[in-house]
Amino acid sequence: MESTSGVTSQRGQEKLAHDGHLFVKAYVLKSGLQSWRCMYKTAPIPCKARAYTLMSTREVIRTSGIHSDPPDPSGVEVAKITSTIKRRCEETSEAPSSLINTALVTATTATLGRMNRPQSISRLINRHRNARSAAPSNPDSRGSIVIPEAYRIYEVFVVLAERAQCVVPVAYALLPDQSSRIVHSDAESLERGLAGPLSRQRGHGLRAAMMIAVRACFPPETRIQGCFFHLVKNIKLRVAQEGLWSRYTNDDDFALKARMIAALAFVPPSELDNAVAELSPVLPEELIPVLNYFEDIYIGRMNRIRADGTVDRRTPQFPVEMWSVYQRTLDGEARTNNYAEAAHRRLQVEFGIQHPTIWKFIDGLKKVQKGRDLQVESFVAGGAPPTKRTKYVRADERILGVVERAEHLQHVEYLRGIAHNFLMDA
Q1: pLDDT tens-digit profile of 226-251?
Q2: Could you tell me which residues are beta bridge partners of residue 155?
Q3: Domain at 4-131: CATH code
């Protein structure tokens, strides 16, 4: 006998749909059959109808009693659709309107006439999602603290491979923290799986813990190179921390001088000391703390000037050879990891949210990877890689022109020329 499950109550309990009626669980018979009672038992005229199903398939084996309520097939369909919407809103991050439209694709006219208004269904979706994501109760003691999976934070570490300007992700890692133990373990796993191609590549935007782990796990010839995009982002953050962002956005000359600090990344490493010395006097006084920050992190604070005129500096957090883009610009290599940022944006678009749960993240990765597989096959079949936008191509050409005539420009002119060709809006 035909039966339908997949309908749930407000408390999440399973219901059975049969012959236009809805049943709720009653008890299990000694024979192993599941007994169901008509859900209208508490109606003015109690319904005595029962249904008995197999435990495994929910197939109705027999019924007993006579329904005191008339069959309502449209009401059953409404309950099915509502349950489907509730289930989908837990499994996906779709907008309420998209959930509703998808669930109503096969609905009949009679069913549509019985459905609640779209606004009411949208509120139902939001209430259901809020209830599912509600914070747990306060723990009684530190020993009783259990952090649910949805509240655990992971950092996404993506390994990208480049072949003939075709860049695709080859590995994803979720790091629960940035401790050296976790990061070192992750780097060892990557080295085992990707030792061949990765040992000849360089890393962009690596944090301190990952830098240490890569040096320990990969061959000495592995090059670690920073990303100009993130260097600019750090300078921008420092400008904001100094309370200067409003002035930066409203004063063109001030903004140009702020970008000249980031432009130090294009200076030949052997000329950095002279460039910093010449830049400092032309900067507004308010930007000196930003320049000091750059020295501390990227060059090393000056200790003393030696007798031969050279500068003795402290060891910086990030060595010059890692973040300098002077030689990379001359060699036509990438200065930024914008392709990585684009990969991250594609992930966010797929998820629809900034911080998905672990399960939504894995499901999203599977979908995104299909698109990357298509990109790889297009490359294998001879397809052209994505092209840069014209404005970025022209900016690269202008920057290369400035770098190539570096020896003919004073340091301040050189920095100003570079600063004209990028914005600090990262």
Answers
A1: 788 888 889 999 999 999 999 999 99
A2: 175
A3: 2.20.25.240
